[in-house]
Design a protein that fits this description.
Layout (H helix, E strand, L loop, with lengths): L10 H27 L3 H16 L3 E8 L5 H12 L3 E9 L2 H10 L1 H5 L3 E5 L12 E7 L8 H11 E11 L8 H22 L2 H12 L4 H10 L2 E9 L4 E8 L1
Helix pairs in contact: 1-4, 1-7, 2-3, 7-8
The structure holds S-adenosylmethionine (SAM).
The site of S-adenosylmethionine has 21 residues, from helix 1 and helix 3.
Length: about 250
């Protein structure tokens, strides 16, 4: 993938290149993720599930949709946290355009698939094959940065959510703050992470894309405003681990 020109590439071509990149790194994706985040991403995911359950306030949840589900980590956490909180999720649905990532998800989530409670589907955030107003919780973890058609995707999220439904976004947001610590974190994500991710996956270019995509992404304030413009009110917004990862939880009015 030619990372140099990615941000000036035509939208569909850019999207195709991003998806191809995920196909390439899919077999080593989970391992690289755990090494790069030192396992801390698990606590960010758990917090996301807990806050979403709190915002929704229901014991019986009809449908949880994880967009950009990748290798299925969030889907696994949704089920695990629901078990711990004694909540019941009737249907889980994971959507992602990368066949490689979905293949890993199929292997990891075999038992949920066999129970018939999980569906994994190939597709993009901008055109979800999901009925309007049918989803209780929609999550997207470290996926939104990769969605080229951001505005269309946000429209889709709001379309498929029930009124009172919850949007959960975990993302490496563009941190525009200028403090010393913020600069140190920018150095870590732009110089160290690509080296570590590149070493584990043997694909340096794919992990060089990570800081580039963060730099081109919106801030959490701008994202919250875009959702508010569409009728989704912020419920909880917090940056974790020195502003590396941000959790946004919003409720559709
Ligand atoms: C960094 S991975 C995150 C995977 C998973 N959500 C996780 O938390 O580990 C980003 C995912 O976004 C997916 N993706 C890329 N473009 C997308 C799009 N337009 N719509 C939906 N998903 C997309 C990729 O295929 C990839 O699986």
């Amino acid at each position: 993938m030619d990372k140099q020109n990615l941000h000036s590439t035509a939208p569909q071509e850019k999207q195709d290149k991003i998806v191809n990149m995920f196909d390439e790194i899919a077999p080593s994706y989970d391992k690289a993720n755990r090494v790069m985040s030192l396992g801390i991403d698990v606590s960010w995911r758990v917090s996301a599930c807990k806050k979403a359950f709190e915002a929704l306030g229901k014991e019986n949840i009809e449908c949880v949709l994880d967009v950009a589900c990748g290798t299925g980590d969030m889907l696994w956490h949704w089920q695990n946290e629901a078990n711990k909180a004694q909540k019941h999720i009737a249907h889980l649905l994971g959507i992602d355009p990368s066949s490689g990532m979905l293949e890993v998800a199929h292997q990891k989530l075999d038992s949920l698939l066999k129970q018939g409670r999980l569906r994994l589907e190939k597709g993009e955030a901008k055109a979800l094959n999901v009925e309007s107003q049918s989803v209780d919780i929609l999550s997207i973890a470290y996926g939104l940065r990769n969605v080229v058609a951001l505005e269309e995707a946000l429209d889709e999220f709001v379309r498929v959510l029930k009124p009172g439904g919850v949007v959960v976004i975990l993302e490496f947001m563009n941190n525009e703050k200028k403090g010393v610590f913020d600069s140190l974190m920018r150095f870590y994500t732009s110089k160290i992470l690509p080296l570590v991710g590149g070493l584990v996956s043997k694909n340096y270019a794919a992990y060089k894309y990570l800081p580039d995509s963060i730099q081109h992404f919106v801030s959490s304030e701008k994202l919250a405003q875009k959702l508010l413009d569409r009728g989704v009110k912020s419920y909880f917004v917090k940056s974790y681990s020195a502003n590396i990862s941000t959790l946004y939880v919003g409720v559709k009015i």
